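Section 5: illustrative case.
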């Protein structure tokens, strides 16, 4: 038994890793070029190409002057429109509260104290006394007749005489009768005499009375700015003889006003 041999485990030899064979390119270098080029060269960085961008000069900004003018014009129109609305509202309120009415004027009488020519018939002297009735129909508006008024009587475009109204105040719904003296002299009356002879034969002599009267309106306790009353009356009288009763056949007066 002693002769029996002992068996010891022998370690297995370590296996060496397989040796990798070098990869041989399938296509020999230099034989032909593929669509993507040499794979070895693909790993190298490809230089970037600089693209040339065309230069366009910057556009000039549009002028703002036109826009500013339009804005200014728009603002002006809006302000005017607003002012018109405000004035209209005030005028409507004034009308409904005070109910203004136009004054009435009429020529009721006329007397001629002088209507004569000089010796050589080159000058005409005329003195008229005219009775005028002024009516104020307003219930809440008074009228101040100021100084600086002017009245005149005309025949065929020639002024015969002139005068003025006195200063006075005309109250609410008041009627005032005025007796006014007008006088004047006229040169170069040859054509006037010829026209007067024709109208005397016809029996109707047309006269025009014009009046410009500065007034101030009293609304309640407030005295407003100065206005000018304009009155034009067309008269038809039967004669222009001095110291005779002159009959007014027709009288038509028109009224206007302005600042």
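Designed sequence:
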């Amino acid at each position: 038994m002693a002769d029996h041999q002992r068996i010891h485990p022998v370690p297995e030899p370590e296996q060496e890793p397989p040796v990798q064979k070098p990869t041989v390119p399938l296509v020999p270098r230099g034989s032909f070029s593929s669509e993507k080029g040499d794979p070895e060269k693909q790993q190298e960085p490809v230089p970037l190409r600089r693209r040339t961008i065309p230069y366009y000069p910057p556009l000039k900004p549009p002028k703002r002057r036109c826009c500013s003018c339009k804005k200014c014009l728009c603002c002006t129109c809006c302000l005017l429109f607003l002012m018109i609305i405000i004035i209209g509202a005030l005028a409507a309120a004034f009308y409904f509260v005070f109910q203004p009415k136009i004054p009435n004027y009429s020529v009721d009488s006329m007397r001629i104290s002088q209507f004569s020519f000089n010796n050589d018939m080159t000058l005409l002297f005329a003195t008229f006394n005219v009775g005028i009735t002024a009516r104020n129909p307003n219930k809440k508006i008074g009228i101040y007749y100021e100084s600086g008024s002017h009245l005149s009587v005309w025949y065929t475009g020639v002024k015969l005489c002139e005068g003025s109204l006195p200063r006075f105040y005309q109250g609410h719904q008041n009627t005032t009768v005025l007796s006014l003296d007008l006088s004047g002299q006229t040169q170069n009356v040859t054509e006037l005499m010829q026209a007067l002879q024709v109208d005397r034969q016809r029996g109707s002599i047309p006269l025009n009375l014009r009046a410009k009267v500065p007034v101030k309106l009293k609304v309640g306790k407030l005295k407003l700015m100065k206005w000018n009353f304009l009155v034009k009356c067309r008269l038809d009288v039967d004669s222009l003889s001095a110291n005779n009763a002159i009959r007014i056949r027709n009288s038509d007066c028109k009224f206007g006003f302005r600042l």
